[in-house]
Amino acid sequence: MNEDNVIDGVINFLREKNRYRDDFRVLHRAYAKDGDKGIDLKCAAYSKGIISNRYYIEAKGTLKAKDNSEKRSKFETEFRWAISQIILQMKEFSEAACYGIAVPESERDDCLKLMQDNKGLAKLKVRLYLAYKAENGEYFAEEMLPKEIYKVRNK
How far apart are CA 22 and CA 27, in angstroms? Predict the structure, then answer.
């Protein structure tokens, strides 16, 4: 699954999640094939003409590598890049701003290993979106909220 498929899945998920709002808009959508830079997806949900939720999401496609050690190294590098893009977008800390990383569902376990014990990501409430191809052939995603991701232990 490539990055553009992941973004499509997250857009479909967010449209469905916000279907009862007055309006939902994709404010910016990057296309990996075009080499777009910056955050991959900015969306807003509106209630009574006012933005009620903002979404800032960085997406990554399936990582291809020759072996497991190369895959892990490349995955960790790509994950760190995604986090840096999210942090650069953090111009506000409100309950209405949602920050997330989107990856194919197949990358779930690797992502969770890097996120679960990270106190910084937990404090920033970074979400995880897991994209997949639905039976109808469209891309969709599920959302993991901070309470489902972070298992920070007191050390």
Answer: 16
Q: Which of 102, 113, 135 is nearest to 9 (CA)?
A: 102
- The pair of structure tokens assigned to 91 is 């111009």
pLDDT tens digits for 37-76? 778 999 999 998 888 899 999 998 886 655 566 666 777 8
CA count, 13 A, side-chain hemisphere, 98: 22
What's the order of all strands across the beta sheet hosting 97-104?
Answer: 23-29, 41-47, 50-59, 97-104, 127-133, 139-144
Question: What one-letter code names the amino acid at 21?
Answer: R
Q: What kind of fold does domain 3-149 have according to CATH?
A: Trna Endonuclease; Chain: A, domain 1 (3.40.1350)
Banded pLDDT at 97 (limits 50, 70, 90): confident
Task: Compute the distance between CA of residue 29 and CA of residue 43 in angstroms, rounded to an integer.
Answer: 9
What single-letter amino acid sits at 155? K
CA distance 13 to 30: 17
CB atoms within 10 A of CB 23: 13
Listed by start position, the domains of the chain span 3-149
Q: Which residues pair with 101 in a beta bridge?
A: 58, 128
